[in-house]
């Protein structure tokens, strides 16, 4: 029996130890002592389930002692192996193909293990191993070394484990005798070995990699440990730091073999109750991130050749390694920075299924809870935390590729360790195939699901964290997977709340601090997103881009083979809302848009999504985004967009945008400073067009659009609605395509319907029965429910086009198409062309200029003096100094890859041609079915007979102008040489437009109600029964006599006037006077608005105050001269009065002042006459003595005014 035991022990030691012989096995009673032994790295690699990219380069033991049981108990008691020290070195393989041959000799040692499960195997499986100290050194390769640049190297990890114990147990992880432990395998069809691993203490030290000394940015620590870079980061030399200490834990190991003793499965489950890192320095955190990144690259490298990795026959075809940590606490402490990270129930598992040639790896990461706090700020704040709302779902959504991935290895799954929480906060599933297969098979598929999360954005913390990520997570292209591989990524988060606090006093914008109302009302913003998702996969089905109808994207059609030259992305959210956080002072009054939590809803988007698709031109892997010379398609869509904002809220959002822009620039600068620089052979020195895609299209589609502009108020932060903009079915698309020596840029804009409603500013309006419909509150009309009444001033008449199939298709009110062809070379200037086609249909305009002027004053755009209002001036100053000022600054076109010479001898350019006037212009603008309603106070009073939704029929109650079509065409005429067929070469025309055609059809001016040919249907919509009106068409051509002049001369070549039906004009004197009064009011308002615009542009001095005065009194100077009887009584004929402005087109300020004084004198005389008549009438009544005294006093004041006017005339 002793000889059998000795042979079994020799057989086992030969498998595990290098160069072991029978002579070394010397029994001293029941003890065998050995020393300085080298362990077989491949056998240890297979038994530990290490990834194939890692290689055990050193495994050495110091004192090796074997304690044998009594011979009679050898089947029951285990053999105990005691090791005082075990030194291991794990290195990432640099050349995976070369490492397979070095250890191929050792694989033959275990070839006989598959012959059956014998005595030696039972003795080996039942051994108990005790190790006093385990020293493990882990070295990963990190990123790919770039020639000519500093090496990026991950630090080394030194892991020390003390008092490690590995023993054999039963299926319930209880230590029993070996005979009971082997009973579970009876009649199971498999051989199961259950082992339990325990350790008393584990510590991890991060050590500097030797290549770190070559990094100039890290090797400058001699300047002092407090030295910081420009971005505020402390990147001193990392000399080593202890990361974890005193971590205890245990592991359950399950080994599954066939009945013939062939390895089948290995499962290792590690459980750690808590991992605490109380103090980690800032350089230590950067080193830790580099180490984790290097470890990630090592575990997921796709260039592993499994045929060259046949290390040992003990390597199982199925393996599962999982690590469960109940609590993790990490504290980063620095003199000026401190972060605390708390994780609950972290589970990491990695399952591998291999057939010897291809390995499928499934990685699963689950986090039960996550808290990230900034304890340095005052007060301390939580940056990341789970949402306060309870999670309703009880199950975790598992992707299809992760279901039934690997048959269970441990037979009793209920006894495994699980997460302590019900639903994990973050769940990641990733499937990877090694080696990376060729398309169309996917090399990796990743799905990340996240429960509701809350993020608090703080500037200092974000900058420091971004600096950590930029330094630590540096993965070069091709480090993990080769360029030809196909990858898929899906990210889903149910809810995301991002809170951004904003201190107005700390902004760089000087105008922001002056806006005291916004500073006192709002303290920050909150972004709420529901059902946020992001997907990246070449097999995605994109519905927005409509690729099936795009010939340029034929390789992206459904059914076409997919490869690495294609990329598709999609992202979206079911609901996205931006809310402003109100301060304690402004939360007293809550309304429909202010939530109970003190948030004011500013912007809301529903079902917003974005899609993108790209493909290279030559079929090569797509590594640069966007691909040079490739095809790019981008689509943005939104089902509904809602906005509620006032001036103060808009300024606050702009300040918030400026804040994000400034922080974003700082973060981008950190990323650029740490990004590996391209060396010379990687950069191309070609033209600009060689660096951009050759075919690009970007589209925007909005189903419903509603914008509400609110009135500023110091009492209510929401204010009253002043303007409401409603739109439906907006589609906009911009595309460019390279055509050999030119580029064609096309734009398409389609808009189905639009409506603009403005606040009603009239007085009380009365129904026909005399009941009051509205009241006046603060200058605006308020309905009976307390909401301000809105008036539609711009809307679209519903039109439909009947097709042959009988389906009525709606006609968009706006349809614009623009095509611009720009040549690259100077010699192709004649190819520079511009084509514009626009059609605007069904426009209805109501209200008039007088109402528009009232609104401008109401909005604060115009002040009491007619100039720009205080709010407008403040807003323009804010915009000029704010973030939007950068959008309007011109910048020269600069491309780093272009040379200094922009043109060569053959006339080809390195960049764009200097844009000049196009050689050929073809413009066609058509306005269809337009109507202008001239509404005054009387018309508005009558309008309330219609209900709110029937504003489309209100034009019948007022004077209005309508036309069927207004067409404007501008194009270049055909040269006469081509018309005559001579074919002679002609010189390039100086002007691109030589012919302009202007035509109008169906022009009508209709008075209120009862007009012939006009009827109102039951729903109040106007219907045109008979087609009439005036038709006018004019052809204007450029005169050929003064072609060399700077200003061309235009002549009318053809004028055509026609009517389809006889014109009937019936108008009474009262109607004509009322129309003149309306026109006078409209012209006055138009002039005052024009004067206000000139004052806004600060053109008073250039055009003179006289012109401003004339514009402000434009209607009084024209219409009063036509209908004033005083003017006719002075001997002037009606013709001279009506056309007096033509005889004296330019009036001096002297004549204008005299005219004003004369008008004032006439008004005073008329008032005096009326007062005299009233005095006479009231004197006869005895009960009106009090009123008589007041009227006499008024008459005396008018008399004094008359005297003053006479003195003023004398001075003039």
Automatic annotation (TrEMBL):
Task: Please give the InterPro entries that the UniProt record associates with this protein.
Answer: BLTP3A/B (IPR026728)
Tell me which UniProt keywords the record has, alphabetically.
Answer: Coiled coil
**Entry keyword Coiled coil:** yes
Coiled-coil annotated spans? 1184-1211
Identification of the protein by name:
Chorein N-terminal domain-containing protein
Organism whose genome encodes this protein: Hevea brasiliensis
């Amino acid at each position: 029996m002793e000889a059998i035991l000795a042979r079994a022990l020799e057989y086992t030691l030969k498998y595990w130890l290098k160069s072991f012989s029978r002579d070394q096995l010397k029994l001293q009673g029941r003890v065998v002592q050995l020393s300085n032994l080298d362990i077989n790295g491949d056998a240890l690699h297979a038994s530990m389930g290490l990834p194939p990219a890692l290689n055990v380069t050193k495994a050495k033991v110091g004192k090796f002692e074997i304690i044998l049981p009594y011979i009679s108990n050898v089947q029951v008691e285990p053999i105990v192996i005691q090791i005082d020290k075990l030194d291991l070195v794990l290195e990432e393989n640099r050349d995976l193909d070369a490492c397979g041959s070095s250890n191929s000799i050792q694989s033959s040692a275990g070839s006989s293990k598959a012959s059956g499960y014998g005595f030696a195997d039972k003795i080996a499986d039942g051994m108990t191993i005790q190790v006093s100290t385990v020293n493990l050194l882990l070295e990963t390769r990190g990123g790919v070394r770039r020639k000519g640049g500093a090496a990026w190297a991950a630090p080394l990890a030194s892991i020390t484990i003390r008092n490690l114990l590995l023993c054999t147990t039963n299926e319930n992880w209880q230590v029993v005798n070996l005979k009971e432990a082997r009973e579970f395998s009876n009649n199971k069809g498999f051989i199961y070995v259950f082992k339990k691993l325990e350790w008393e203490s584990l510590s991890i030290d991060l050590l500097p990699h030797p290549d770190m000394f070559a990094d100039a940015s890290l090797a400058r620590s001699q300047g002092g440990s407090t030295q910081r870079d420009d971005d505020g980061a402390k990147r001193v030399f990392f000399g080593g730091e202890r990361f974890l200490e005193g971590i205890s834990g245990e592991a359950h190991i399950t080994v599954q073999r066939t009945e013939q003793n062939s390895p089948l499965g290995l499962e290792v489950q590690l459980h750690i109750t808590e991992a605490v890192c109380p103090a980690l320095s800032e350089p230590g955190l950067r080193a830790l991130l580099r180490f984790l990144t290097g470890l990630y690259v090592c575990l997921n490298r796709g260039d592993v050749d499994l045929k060259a990795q046949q290390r040992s026959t003990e390597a199982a075809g199925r393996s599962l390694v999982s690590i469960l940590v109940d609590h993790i606490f990490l504290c980063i402490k620095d003199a000026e920075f401190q972060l605390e990270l708390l994780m609950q129930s972290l589970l990491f598992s990695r399952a591998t299924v291999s057939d010897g040639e291809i390995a499928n790896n499934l990685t699963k990461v689950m986090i039960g809870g996550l808290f990230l706090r900034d304890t340095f700020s005052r007060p301390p704040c939580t940056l990341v935390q789970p949402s306060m709302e309870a999670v309703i779902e009880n199950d975790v959504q598992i992707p299809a590729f992760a279901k039934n991935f690997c048959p269970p290895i441990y037979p009793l799954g209920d006894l495994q360790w699980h997460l302590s929480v019900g639903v994990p906060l973050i769940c990641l599933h990733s499937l990877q195939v090694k080696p990376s297969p060729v398309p169309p098979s996917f090399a990796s598929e990743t799905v990340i699901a996240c429960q509701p999360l809350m993020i608090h954005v703080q500037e200092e913390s974000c900058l420091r964290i971004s600096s950590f990520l930029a330094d630590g997570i540096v993965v070069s292209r091709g480090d993990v997977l080769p360029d030809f591989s196909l990858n898929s990524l899906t990210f889903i988060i149910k809810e995301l709340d991002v809170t951004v606090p904003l201190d107005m006093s700390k902004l760089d914008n000087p105008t922001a601090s002056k806006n005291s109302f916004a500073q006192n009302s709002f303290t920050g913003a909150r972004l709420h997103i529901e059902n946020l998702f992001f997907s990246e996969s070449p097999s995605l089905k994109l519905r927005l881009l409509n690729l099936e109808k795009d010939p340029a994207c034929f390789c992206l059609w459904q059914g076409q083979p997919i490869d690495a030259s294609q990329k598709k992305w999609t992202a979206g959210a079911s609901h996205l809302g931006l809310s402003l956080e109100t301060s304690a002072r402004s939360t007293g009054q809550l309304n429909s848009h202010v939530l109970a939590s003190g948030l004011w809803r500013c912007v809301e988007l529903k079902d917003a999504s974005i899609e993108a698709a790209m493909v290279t031109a030559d079929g090569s892997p797509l590594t640069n985004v966007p691909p040079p010379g490739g095809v790019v398609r981008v689509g943005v869509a939104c089902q509904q967009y809602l906005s509620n904002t006032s001036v103060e809220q808009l300024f606050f959002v702009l300040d918030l945008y400026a804040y994000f822009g400034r922080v974003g620039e700082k973060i981008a600068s950190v990323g650029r400073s740490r990004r590996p620089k391209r060396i010379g052979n990687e950069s191309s020195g070609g033209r600009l067009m060689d660096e951009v895609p050759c075919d690009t299209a970007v589209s925007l589609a909005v189903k419903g659009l509603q914008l509400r502009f609110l009135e500023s108020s110091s009492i209510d932060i929401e204010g009253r609605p002043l303007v409401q903009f409603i739109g439906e079915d907006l589609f906009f698309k911009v595309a460019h395509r390279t055509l050999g020596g030119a580029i064609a840029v096309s734009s398409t804009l389609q808009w189905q319907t639009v409506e603009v409603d403005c606040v009603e500013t009239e007085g009380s309006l009365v129904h026909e029965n005399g009941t009051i419909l509205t009241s006046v509150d603060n200058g605006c009309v308020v309905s009976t429910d307390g909401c301000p009444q809105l008036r539609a001033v711009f809307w679209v008449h519903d039109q439909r086009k009947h097709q042959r199939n009988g389906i009525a298709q709606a006609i968009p009110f706006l349809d614009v198409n623009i095509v611009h062809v720009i040549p690259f070379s100077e010699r192709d200037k004649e190819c520079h062309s511009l084509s514009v086609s626009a059609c605007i249909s069904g426009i209805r305009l109501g209200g008039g200029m007088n109402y528009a002027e009232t609104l401008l004053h109401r909005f604060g755009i115009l002040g009491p003096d007619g100039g720009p209002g205080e709010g407008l001036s403040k807003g323009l100053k804010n915009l000029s100094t704010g973030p939007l000022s950068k959008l309007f600054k011109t910048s020269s076109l600069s491309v780093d890859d272009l040379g200094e010479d922009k043109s060569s001898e053959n006339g080809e350019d390195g960049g764009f041609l200097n844009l000049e006037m196009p050689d050929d212009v073809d413009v066609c603008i058509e306005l269809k079915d337009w109507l202008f309603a001239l509404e005054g106070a009387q018309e508005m009073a009558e309008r309330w007979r219609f209900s709110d939704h029937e504003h489309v029929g209100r034009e019948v109650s007022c004077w209005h102008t309508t036309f069927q079509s207004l067409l404007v065409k501008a194009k270049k005429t055909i040269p006469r040489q081509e018309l005559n067929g001579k074919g002679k070469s002609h010189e390039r025309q100086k002007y691109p437009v030589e012919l302009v055609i202007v035509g109008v059809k169906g022009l009508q001016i209709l008075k209120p109600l009862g007009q012939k040919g006009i009827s109102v249907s039951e729903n109040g919509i106007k219907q045109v029964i008979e087609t009439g009106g005036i038709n006018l068409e004019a052809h204007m051509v450029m005169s050929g006599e003064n072609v060399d002049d700077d200003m061309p001369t235009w002549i009318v070549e053809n004028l055509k006037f026609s009517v389809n039906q006889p014109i009937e004009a019936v108008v009474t004197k009262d109607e004509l006077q009322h129309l003149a009064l309306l026109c006078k009011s409209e012209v006055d308002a138009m002039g005052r608005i024009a004067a206000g615009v000139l004052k806004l542009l600060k053109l008073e001095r250039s055009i003179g105050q006289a012109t401003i005065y004339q514009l402000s009194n434009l209607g009084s100077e024209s219409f009063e001269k036509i209908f004033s009887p005083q003017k006719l009584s002075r001997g002037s004929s009606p013709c001279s009065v009506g056309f007096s402005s033509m005889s004296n087109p330019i009036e001096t300020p002297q004549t204008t002042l005299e005219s004003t004084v004369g008008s004032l004198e006439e008004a005073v005389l008329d008032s005096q006459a009326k007062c005299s008549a009233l005095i006479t009438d009231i004197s006869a009544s005895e009960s009106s003595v009090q009123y008589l005294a007041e009227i006499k006093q008024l008459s005396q004041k008018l008399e004094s005014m008359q005297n003053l006017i006479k003195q003023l005339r004398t001075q003039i």
